[in-house]
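Comment thread on ticket #2218

A.B. wrote:
> Attaching the input chain for the structure job we discussed in standup.
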Amino acid sequence: MIAAIRSSSHLAPLHNPANLAGIEAVRAVRPDLPQVAVFDTAFHQTMPPSAFRYAVPEEWYTRYGVRRYGFHGTSYRFVSERAAALLGRPLTELRLVAAHLGNGCSVAAVRDGASVDTTMGLTPLEGLVMGTRSGDVDPGVFGYLADRAGLTIGEINEALYTTSGLRGLSGVSNDMRTVEAAAAEGNERARLAMEVFVHRLAKAIAGMVVSLERLDALVFTGGIGENSAFVRSQVLARLGFLGLIEDTGANARNGRDTRGRISLDGKVMAMVVPTDEELMIARDTARLAAVGTQAV
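C.D. wrote:
> Ran it. Output below, let me know if you need it in another format.
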């Protein structure tokens, strides 16, 4: 398993090596202690080829693994199960769109408990506008900036990961709270950053419904999703055609006294569901450790 994790480090260069270092450090001190690796990409392995394949040369996929993997899967598993419990309905009968919004942002379509589409792809750079990440850009930007600005692929990639997104647009911060405050004070770049963030988010949510055929609930989670009533309000205002109408009072209270609900009653509901990835990881660990003990 360690060899398998190491062999895929090129797909997650910021995560796999650091986590492997932790695994190996624990093994050195406690070689008898069971360890469990929980992957954010695992939940999205139910996506159909129509959702995970790119329209690129076949060899890129078969030889190099160029496909859409998706991330935030541990969070999506947790909030999907929690949303079903709050709604009092079986998860296997629900069509959900969940938006995990933090410094990293993505949206996923969850059909009957399984992921069928998501906005992140080969890397966590694809999709929505994020704190410092650009999200979707025309891939032609690489050749264009190489010709016009003399930038290398590495330099462009670094900029798209670390100095883009809310930070790049606003010129203020990668923290949504700071950007919101600056926009409220009249900072035009911050206002534009908010508009781009909300526009791209609402468009992605609407697009995910294509993979569901109907929508039962829209779930907001993550630091921004759970705490920014303004972002949620702006998104819901753009999604009225889906039957979502904001309950301004419930939204202002982050759905705390309405079992997560932040929309008016109707066939489609908008909800705030706080995520707990650590709890989901702990549950997986307890389950797999128990299986390993039984096997021994």
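A.B. wrote:
> Thanks. Noting for the ticket: The beta strands are 95-101, 105-111, 114-118, 217-221, 269-272.
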